[in-house]
Amino acid sequence: MKVNIWKGTILALAGLLAAGAAVAANIEWDTLNPAFRGAMYVNDASVCVGCHEDALTHYGQTGHAQVAKFGKQGSRTPDCEACHGPRSAHVADPDSSLALPALSQAAVCLQCHQGENRIYWKSGRHQAAGLSCASCHTVMEPKSKKSLLSRASESELCYSCHANVRSEMNKSSHHPVREGKLECSSCHQVHGTSNPALLIGATVNETCYSCHQEKRGPFIWEHAPVREDCMTCHEAHGSNNRKLQNSKDSFLCLQCHTYGGHINLPRYNRTSNPYGEGCVNCHVTVHGSNSPSGAKLTR
Ligand code: HEC
Ligand code: HEC
Ligand code: HEC
Ligand code: HEC
Ligand code: HEC
Ligand code: HEC
Ligand code: HEC
Ligand code: HEC
Ligand code: HEC
Ligand code: HEC
Description:
- By secondary structure, the chain is mainly α.
- Among the domains are: 121-195, no CATH class; 217-282, no CATH class.
- It has helices at 29-32, 45-51, 53-59, 63-70, 80-84, 88-92, 102-113, 125-128, 154-159, 163-169, 204-209, 224-228, 249-254, 266-269, 279-282, and strands spanning 173-174, 238-239.
- The protein has a two-stranded antiparallel sheet.
- It is elongated, with a radius of gyration of 27 Å.
- 17% of the residues are buried.
- Bound molecules: heme C (10 copies).
């Protein structure tokens, strides 16, 4: 059965996208691939489906197809040729390939998705590394529950290129991505940002404060390295030391606090009983203290 829901109104409809993407001008297809020169829009997806019936099997379930089907008010219809360009020449001679190189493909998607999260796409690390939208998204076939990702889950997608992060996340102390409480995108803006390491916050600390607000302070007694950079003492993803520390309990502190005073007494250095976690057993407010008598971070 040929469905006639594919009436192309491709790019003809102006207005705001349901997804919040900004309205953009059409792109110059022949600058992306000269083979488009002279080609016209067929403007009828049923023509495409006539030869590409199987393309519809999975694509039909996607948000793109649904929007095209119901012509959601005010949305620009993402019909076949919105992404594949004017195809009259291809219909006449199907063997003429009109495939696009990776970076040009992004331009196709950005026609409708250049706003919001993609504002910094062009200056982002992933774009700079030659990735395209299709490196992470399979728009013809949804393989994830949401966002048309090319893997079943977000972390599996990321691990396919960032294997080192998987092994970090497998360490004994780790941010609970494995447990499903966080996603990589809880901390990273993978579509590009002007922040370091594609973080959601302007700095590492701002990113951490977004969930661990109590560490922001201000405190009556600040601990200088905490203000500077949480990464001075912590790993972001995982560590085999407790509480994501980047070195073992007392060694952590002794990088900056040389032996002297009470510290050279063995009993203050223990990482096992009777002093439990070593220094922080007594210096319980290592992130800063709000007690008037907390100058030594002991309360
Ligand atoms: C007369 C049959 C026919 C029609 C009509 C047709 N195609 Fe094709 N298409 C083919 C064949 C054959 C190929 C090349 C073999 C392959 O890779 O499957 C192809 C390849 C493609 C490809 C992959 C290579 C490329 O050029 O990017 C896309 C995408 C595509 N077609 C989209 C469309 C769209 C969109 C329409 C409707 C405007 C359409 N086709 C209409 C037969 C057709
Ligand atoms: C939202 C953009 C978008 C829309 C809309 C879209 N496609 Fe695609 N299509 C792509 C991309 C990107 C690829 C490249 C393969 C991939 O990454 O999934 C592709 C690949 C294809 C291929 C090649 C498949 C292969 O296995 O190589 C065909 C054929 C095709 N599309 C046909 C269609 C037809 C027919 C329609 C309309 C019913 C359509 N597409 C609508 C973006 C789109
Ligand atoms: C002609 C406009 C248009 C183009 C071109 C387009 N999209 Fe979309 N896209 C939309 C609209 C509209 C929606 C919202 C659909 C909905 O309501 O589910 C959407 C939704 C999405 C979503 C979210 C889907 C979900 O299930 O959460 C992703 C991911 C996406 N698009 C990726 C892409 C990629 C990648 C490309 C390029 C290959 C692309 N889009 C090209 C209009 C477009
Ligand atoms: C490095 C992998 C990666 C690349 C490259 C990528 N995306 Fe995404 N995209 C994701 C992930 C992960 C999500 C879901 C989490 C989120 O919303 O950030 C997502 C979500 C989306 C969504 C739905 C939510 C939203 O932000 O509106 C759209 C639309 C989208 N991507 C479009 C694009 C477009 C367009 C491109 C290319 C310019 C692109 N993506 C490139 C990984 C990627
Ligand atoms: C197709 C491969 C690929 C996928 C998939 C991918 N990345 Fe990347 N990513 C890269 C490359 C290449 C770089 C740049 C080189 C580098 O720094 O390793 C990079 C860089 C990064 C950076 C470092 C940015 C910086 O400024 O140091 C972060 C963070 C990142 N990716 C997170 C993610 C997340 C989160 C996901 C999953 C949503 C993801 N990546 C998916 C290939 C990929
Ligand atoms: C709790 C926040 C958080 C989560 C969740 C998170 N990251 Fe990160 N990530 C960071 C921070 C902070 C940095 C920068 C570390 C630094 O500056 O030393 C970073 C750095 C990176 C880098 C670049 C340095 C490196 O280790 O290669 C990549 C790639 C990366 N993250 C990928 C991921 C992936 C993939 C996931 C999901 C499996 C993920 N991140 C989850 C906070 C997070
Ligand atoms: C998106 C929210 C989020 C962000 C951002 C975030 N965290 Fe977390 N963090 C969590 C959650 C959730 C836990 C687990 C809490 C639990 O299990 O009770 C956690 C646990 C921790 C732990 C304890 C780990 C353990 O083994 O008990 C440390 C240390 C930590 N985070 C440090 C950081 C640092 C440093 C940053 C900034 C790089 C950061 N967090 C950013 C949500 C976040
Ligand atoms: C001077 C080293 C140091 C710095 C810098 C540091 N931490 Fe910690 N952090 C620790 C130690 C040590 C522990 C374990 C404390 C304990 O066992 O009582 C810890 C534990 C934690 C915990 C889990 C227990 C709790 O107190 O909730 C979180 C969350 C945390 N840190 C977040 C942060 C954030 C966010 C930053 C940056 C604003 C930061 N840390 C900077 C040393 C540090
Ligand atoms: C990266 C270096 C660094 C690390 C690591 C570090 N500190 Fe500090 N610490 C400082 C600095 C700098 C000060 C401020 C010193 C001053 O004001 O004279 C300080 C101050 C203190 C003070 C108050 C000292 C005073 O004289 O008032 C205590 C107590 C303290 N740190 C304990 C710890 C403990 C416990 C750890 C391990 C969990 C630790 N520090 C890890 C740099 C560090
Ligand atoms: C048994 C409890 C206890 C343990 C364990 C402990 N401290 Fe202290 N620390 C204190 C007390 C109490 C003070 C305040 C002493 C004072 O005011 O004279 C202090 C003071 C300090 C000071 C401030 C400088 C000074 O001498 O007054 C630093 C720095 C410090 N400790 C670091 C450490 C480090 C690093 C460790 C782990 C190697 C550690 N402490 C283990 C109780 C402890």
